[in-house]
């Protein structure tokens, strides 16, 4: 039974809304009224008619709480509380504002995500896996790396590895049960022999899925460039090595794989810096512009309505005529940068419906007292009257003079 909005748990945690439904638990967004902060509350599912399954689920839940309470890493959620209430079990942890990578992949209509984003995220996951695998006295094997368990924080390129329900401390001479997600797990994990290199395989499977947009099939991963011919051969080689069927043929540690990915990223930087591009595409800004490039036009329009000026710029580059209405509306924004990007985007799209709103904006800018804008507007009118250039080319060039500072 789901918790209701406003329901208070343990006299402290006020439920705001349901965030995610899982196979064994639900995740809620809640407010910690004692500390006046937002948190995530994880509620365990259990079957009261099956004592054996019930106890198994409870033990796993307790182990997750204990594991996370002992860990501290920027790419892991922090646990702050664990309690029972009304016969149910709850775990309280950091609330991650963002979206899991599986959901993000669906928003791109499964075309696959950009190479540079996937490299960046994989480097971060390697770092957290290295941290887990080097816990002492007993290493921790995560056992379920997959897009659904990686959260991308809003307005950032930072990812967080979530859901430690099946992570396992490896005791000396101990055994590990065959738990995981079938499509991402290596053969040795099915055999109950999961180890650190099993997580490396799962990360390779995750990267393959994110890059191709194709749902993985157990043990069958076609060459990535079959689907994305422009992908670098070096990245395909890295993913292929991580997916080797025999652990000895994979990267032997997460740190080793991270080093190779960092080397690839470094070589891409050098290549771009020596080329014509003045802004390498893999560099992220605070609004995640590289991430936006993977979105559909409809999602970009939604981002524009939220005031995201990068979305306006990308819509202009895409010449997305279906965005004209939203861009015209954005010309009324109080944010001068958003007005600027929206105006430039409309100029690039060249839809006649944008002419009157753009000229109105230019008149408003002129009456603001900026002499440079007033002069440029007059030059614009003269150029159009003389038909020296196409109207939209002139308009875009003049708007750049109006809005873009040296």
What would your notes on this structure say?
Helices cover 45% and strands 14% of the residues. It is α+β, with helices and mostly antiparallel strands and 406 residues long. It has three domains: 7-94, Phosphorylase Kinase, domain 1 (2-Layer Sandwich); 98-170 and 181-274, Transferase(Phosphotransferase) domain 1 (Transferase(Phosphotransferase), domain 1, Orthogonal Bundle), CATH 1.10.510.10; 297-404, Leucine-rich Repeat Variant (Alpha Horseshoe), CATH 1.25.10. A hairpin with a 3-residue loop joins strand 1 (8-9) and strand 2 (13-21).
How far apart the termini lie comes to 59 Å
Major pleated sheet:
6 strands, antiparallel
Classified by CATH, the class of the largest domain is: Mainly Alpha
Oligomer: single chain
Q: Looking at CATH, which topology of the largest domain would you report? A: Transferase(Phosphotransferase), domain 1
Number of helices, counting only DSSP H or I runs of 4 residues or more: 15
Number-wise, the strands total: 11
Q: What's the Cα radius of gyration? A: 26 Å
Strand order of the largest sheet: 1-2-3-4-6-5
Just name the CATH architecture of the largest domain: Orthogonal Bundle
Count of spatially separate domains: 3
CATH homologous superfamily identity of the largest domain:
Transferase(Phosphotransferase) domain 1
| Helix content percent band | 40-55%
Note the run of SSEs as H and E: EEEEHEEEHHEEEEHHHHHHHHHHHH
Helical/strand content category: alpha+beta
Name the average pLDDT: 81
- The residue ranges in which pLDDT falls below 50 over 5 or more consecutive positions are 170-177, 276-289, 369-374
Strand content: 5-15%
């Amino acid at each position: 039974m789901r918790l209701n909005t406003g329901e208070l748990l343990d006299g402290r945690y006020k439920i705001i809304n349901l965030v995610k439904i899982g196979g064994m638990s639900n995740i809620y967004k809640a407010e910690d009224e004692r500390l006046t902060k937002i948190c995530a509350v994880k509620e365990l599912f259990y079957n009261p008619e099956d004592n054996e399954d019930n106890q198994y689920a409870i033990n796993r839940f307790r182990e997750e709480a204990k594991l996370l309470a002992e860990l501290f890493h920027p790419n892991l959620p922090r646990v702050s509380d664990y309690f029972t209430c009304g016969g149910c079990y709850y775990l309280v942890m950091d609330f991650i504002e963002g979206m899991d990578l599986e959901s993000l992949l669906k928003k791109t209509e499964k075309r696959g995500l950009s190479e540079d984003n996937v490299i960046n995220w994989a480097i971060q996951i390697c770092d957290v896996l290295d941290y887990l695998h080097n816990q002492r006295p007993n290493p921790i094997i995560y056992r379920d790396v997959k897009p659904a368990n990686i959260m991308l924080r809003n307005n950032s390129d930072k990812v967080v590895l979530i859901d430690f329900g099946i992570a396992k401390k490896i005791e000396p001479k101990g055994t590990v049960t065959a738990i995981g997600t079938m499509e991402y797990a290596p053969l040795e994990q099915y055999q109950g022999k999961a180890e650190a290199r099993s997580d490396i395989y799962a990360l390779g499977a995750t990267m393959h899925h994110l890059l191709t947009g194709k749902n993985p099939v157990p043990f069958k991963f076609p060459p990535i460039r079959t689907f994305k011919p422009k992908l670098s051969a070096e990245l395909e080689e890295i993913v292929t090595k991580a997916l080797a069927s025999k652990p000895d043929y994979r990267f032997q540690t997460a740190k080793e794989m991270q080093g190779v990915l960092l080397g690839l990223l470094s070589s891409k930087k050098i290549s771009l810096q020596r080329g014509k591009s003045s802004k390498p595409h893999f560099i992220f800004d605070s609004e995640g512009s590289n991430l936006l490039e993977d979105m559909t036009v409809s999602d970009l329009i939604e981002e524009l309505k939220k005031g995201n000026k990068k979305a306006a710029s990308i819509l202009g580059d895409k010449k997305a005529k279906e965005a004209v209405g939203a861009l015209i509306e954005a010309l009324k924004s109080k944010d001068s940068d958003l007005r600027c990007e929206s105006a430039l985007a409309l100029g690039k799209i060249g839809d006649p419906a944008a002419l009157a709103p753009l000229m109105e904006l230019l008149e408003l800018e002129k009456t603001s007292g900026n002499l440079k804008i007033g002069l440029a507007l007059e030059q614009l009118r003269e150029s159009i009257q003389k038909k020296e250039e196409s109207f939209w080319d002139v308009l875009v060039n003049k708007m750049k003079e109006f809005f873009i500072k040296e």
